[in-house]
Each structure stands twice: as C-alpha cells, then as structure tokens.
Write a structure and sequence with these properties.
75% helix
C-alpha cells in the first residue's frame, strides 16, 4: 500500500515560517539554507515541497492574502449587516495593520517585478485584495441613498492608505496613533465620498 502524500500538509505547516523569514529578510537575502534552518528541516525537504526559492517566495506572496482573509473573516463573523463590514475592517486594521510584518513580502516582491512569475503573483494578490475590499465598500455604499455602489477608485484609495500606513510604520514616519487615524478618518472619507 503506498504511503499517503503529506506534502500539502507539510507545505501548510512550513509556509507561515517561510513567510515570516521572507518578511524579515526579503527575497534576495533569504538563502535556502536560512529558510531551511528556520523551518527546522534540511534544504532537500524544502526542494521536495517547492521546486526552488522563487516558488517558495511566490507561495509566501499568496500567503499574505490568505492570512489576511482568514483574519478578516474571523473579525466579520460577528458583523450582522454586510453593509457594516467595511467600517468594521477599517477599525480593526486601524488597530492591527502591519502587526505581523507580512506586508514586507509584498514590498520585497515589488523590487522583483522584472520576474514574470513574481509579478503575476503580486498582481493576483493585489487583485484579490481589491476584490475583497470592493465587495465590502460596495455593500457599505449601497446602504446610503447617496451612493449607487462602489467605485474602483475607492478600493484603490483604501489599499493605498494601508500601503502608506505600512510605509510610515517601516520608516518611523507615522506613529501608531497617526496610522490609526489615517485608516479610520481618511478611510471613512473615501468610503463615504460622493461620486461625481
């Protein structure tokens, strides 16, 4: 009887460790030896699960969204009205944005967009963020009689606020209170702005 394939389970166990390593070290500084050491496995184990370091990094890029989505869905489980999801997420992110530093994976990836696979992974991940945000903002805006639904620009603006807040954190230019106000106050303005 053949042994069961445990590679999916093992990838699931090691991916958060890889993501944390890429978030700390970036793509270029993270050697496969360092990644294996942090995962407490031999390098050949990593290569059984992923074909190369780039595939590990691409998986880490996707992990950023997957981990965010799991966190957000847990937050929204107690929200009764879908129209309240966007403001609830802004409040949550105002307190917790960037805590785990996984945004650094996306920032590192932006320096690697000359690689088509990394560029495609980033485009897909940002697209998934925009789609998720769009659903929540559209539901919120439809609740108000002043709106006829979401605008792609509002979703980009909210994603941009989060990016700017993380840049401010990374460079020490925005303290936690300022980052929180940026997301809640400006985020609220963006969500509730009338379209012309």
């Amino acid at each position: 009887m053949p042994r069961p394939d445990l590679s999916v389970q093992k990838r699931g166990e090691l991916l958060p460790v890889l993501a944390d390593a890429f978030a700390e070290l970036g793509y270029r500084r993270a050697s496969t030896a360092e990644l294996a050491d942090r995962c407490a496995v031999r390098v050949n184990i990593l290569y059984r699960l992923w074909p190369d370091k780039k595939a590990m990094f691409v998986a880490a890029i996707h992990h950023v969204f997957d981990r965010s989505l799991a966190t957000w869905e847990a937050q929204l489980a107690r929200v009764r009205d879908p129209a309240d999801a966007a403001p609830e997420l802004l409040k949550y992110e105002a307190r917790h944005l960037g805590e785990h530093g996984l945004y650094r994976i996306l920032f590192a990836g932006l320096g690697e967009t000359d690689d088509p696979e990394i560029k495609a992974a980033l485009a897909e991940t940002y697209g998934r963020f925009l789609s998720f945000i769009s659903d929540k903002v559209t539901a919120h805006q439809r609740k108000s009689s002043e709106h006829d639904g979401g605008s792609e620009l509002a979703e980009w603006a909210i994603l941009g606020l989060a990016t700017v807040a993380n840049i401010g954190r990374e460079l020490g230019l925005l303290d936690s209170r300022s980052r929180s106000r940026l997301l809640t106050e400006v985020g609220d303005l963006v969500m509730n702005a009338r379209r012309s």
